[in-house]
Amino acid sequence: MSGGKGGSQSSKVEIPAYLENASKASLNRAEQVQDIGYMPYMGPDVAAFTQPQQQAMQSNIDAAAAFGLVDPGLDAMAGMPQAQDFGGVQGHSSFPLFEMAQQDLAAQRPGQVEAYDEMYVDPVTGEGGHNGTNSQFPYPYDPRFFR
Question: I want to staple 64 with a disulfide (CB 3.0 to 4.6 A). Which of 42, 55, 69, 115 is the partner?
Answer without folding.
Answer: 69
